[in-house]
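Field notebook, page 273. I keep forgetting to write these up properly, so this time I am using the form the group agreed on. The chain and the ligand, zinc ion, are recorded exactly as supplied. Prediction of the bound pose follows.
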Amino acid sequence: MVKKFRESYEVSLVSFKIHPGYIKGKTSGDKPATRLTQCATIIYFAFAMQDKTNDTLTVAGIKFHVIRKGNSDRRYVWLHGDEPTAREVLVQHMETHPGQALYIESAERNVRIAGGWLNPNRMFSREGAEKNLRKLNPSWGKKQLDAALDRLDRDLGALFQTLLPPTGGLLVALHNNWEDFNVHSEIPISNRVALSDPDHPRDFYICTSDADFAQLSCSPYNVVLQEGNSVADDGSLSPLAGRRNIRYVNIEAELGAFDKQKAMLGWLEEALP
Ligand SMILES: [Zn+2]
């Protein structure tokens, strides 16, 4: 760790073309405040660079890109390849925040599995995945279906290990939506609702913890609470989080609403423990 830090620190010094003596304040000619700011900037970048790893995780042939950065119990996930705004928001967020982020490697909504198709946000339970595989692959027989489900069962443990936060940690998913989906679609299956931004019903949080709802309902954005087993298990992340008692927030925003979704993630990051 120390060696790694020293290396990245020295790389930073070289890339900034600054002699170490300058850091110690031995070089004259600059105001101390300026020196201090530049020194702090260099150290910040050195810390930001350290411990960042890139990895790949494959689940039943479905590939994910994993970024691990610093020490944090925050977990982030981007699941739908046809929702690029959410991806951009998360990529930018991870440049300045610690945590672990999982990005699906796909430019399409559904992904290939065992020669067929699967919505990756239906893979988190066998029952939900089965329903989705039947729907998207109507020509499949029982043998093909069972083979795909068995592959998922084998690999889901590794996915959960990377995706799910430690006890008390927070899992954040980012999604984009089109005209057919908004907060009103979720109200009938929600325990509590706060509509602070009624003119933009497509931008909203879905959370699973009462305490997080209390915080998020103070935001200028819409939020619904879906606790425990109140949502039917369709294989998506939200019922999984409910079943396992995991603090989970889905940030839904209109496709293309980069600034709005970024602000919603920023608000959450500041407000939630
Ligand atoms: Zn989505």
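OBSERVATIONS:
- The chain has two domains: 2-49, 53-271.
- The radius of gyration is 22 Å.
FOLLOW-UP: compare against the apo run.
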